[in-house]
Request: fold
Amino acid sequence: MKTRPARDSDSPRIFEIRNEIIRTSDAILEDEPWSRERWDAWWDAREKTLPILVLADETNHVWGYAVLGYFGDRSGYRVTGEVSIHLDSSVRGKG
Reply:
């Protein structure tokens, strides 16, 4: 497996992984999975300068992703960020 920058074509798979995590854990701190419309709006509006990386196999199937985002919108947070890393349940705990 390798990491690479996310492409627009990865969006559906990242959406799938994200909603699976929302449904099965408290890692994302959301109670309800996102609708496709909400996801598409977030994906289109996301800060293009902040990276999203994916973990993909040799066929380019996405097994996980990492997102760097701003920690908060107040001026004091301008030098801080948060990293979220999420994996498909079938590859978690495999190192």
In short: The radius of gyration is 14 Å. The first strand starts at residue 2 and ends at 5. Helices lie at 11-24, 36-45.
